[in-house]
Amino acid sequence: MHQGKTAAARRSSWSARLLALAVLLAGAALWSAPALGADGPPLKGQFADRFEMPDQPRPAPEVTFKTRDGETVRLADFKGQVVLLNFWATWCAPCVEEMPTLDGLQHALGGEAFQVLAVSQERGGLSTVEPFLREELNLRDLDIYLDSDGALAQAFGLRGLPTTYLLNARGQVVGGLEGAADWNSDAARALMQHYIDQGREAGVIETGG
Fold first, then answer.
1. Which residues form the Thioredoxin domain (predicted)?
2. How far is Cα 101 from Cα 107, in angstroms, rounded to an integer?
3. How many alpha carbons lie under 13 Å from residue 52 in its C-beta half-sphere?
4. Could you give the CA distance from residue 84 to residue 105 in angstroms, rounded to a whole number?
5. Is 29 helix (H, G, I), strand (E, B) or coil?
6. Rounded to two decimals, what is the model's pTM?
7. Does domain 2-26+39-201 correspond to CATH entry 3.40.30.10?
């Protein structure tokens, strides 16, 4: 009984944060086309209880972050792809635990239709993140993105790491999850594929992407 209340409180808190994100972005322009995800995605395994969704997709914050090469980008630059946005840091044990699964997901599905954006919160920047990913964890498929000043994390109202959001191909936030997860599981791949397929059906993702 106590566990049920705790889970309910967690879901309520997460939903409140998504609502707060919507309020924060109330002035942003919404897509006039019908929202993707209307049929509801398959939520299986760990995602059945932990993946939280707003009533309607929300616009993503227009906050900049950096690529490995120092280029300034926004989430809007990735419209046309389904994006799994993961906030992490080298000092976060659960982040490190799930990082190989994010790399595996990127290896399996990454391309013109889908991309994992693993955005580091490391204040040490590239000099800390790159050797950690490439040498210590031996990960090759994830690109490096940096939010060293925490601006993007603050725009999303993060409470802790890791936190992961899913954006549809129109660049809208369709859900999220706090804590580590197996992102290379069949359940995770099915969730990503659902939004990839919807993006293609809506003409937002090119059929061959």
1. 54-197
2. 10
3. 20
4. 10
5. coil
6. 0.83
7. yes
